[in-house]
Here is the input.
Amino acid sequence: MTTPDDGGIDPRVFRNVLGQFCTGVTIITTVDAGEPVGFACQSFAALSLEPPLVLFCPTRTSRSWTAIERSGRFCVNVLAEEQQDTCARFGSREPDKFAGVEWRPSPLGSPVLTGSLAHIDCTVETVHDGGDHWVVFGRVSSLSEVRDEKERPLLFYRGQYTGIEPDKTVPAPWRDDLEAFLTSTSEDTWL
Here is the structure.
């Protein structure tokens, strides 16, 4: 176990340890002053079934977050495995991240990126202090249909893109013990 002498946590060690947790990758989008805006985000999660809420965590200095806050709405685009270039573009400081990127407006008007596995259209519900980030709760307004169950998500693990093994293109068989975990809430569950 690594613990600095001064009781603080070394940011590099913190990042490396948290890198052991595999995440999906999303692009969070909105339209601000008539222009599409977006950023790559791996700090996204489901929050509540009733009411339907999700959350994401932008940095306090994010210009994209400022635009989302102004508009009051956003769309979460869940990236497919083949969208690494799109992720890299939206994770960069490129001034026009939408150049050459095909999209259409969601029901609330935020960009839905062509090729995304799924999208979740939301309004900003609440914003909370999260240290050097904000924790944004979004109320889900509409969802996409599931496109093709054989498509795979873009994943991020140990500081790099990764994916699901080629012969494992679908989740493991459904287990009855997961039914209660995923559909009910108690003091012991997170969803």
In short: Confidence is low (pLDDT under 50) at residues 178-191.
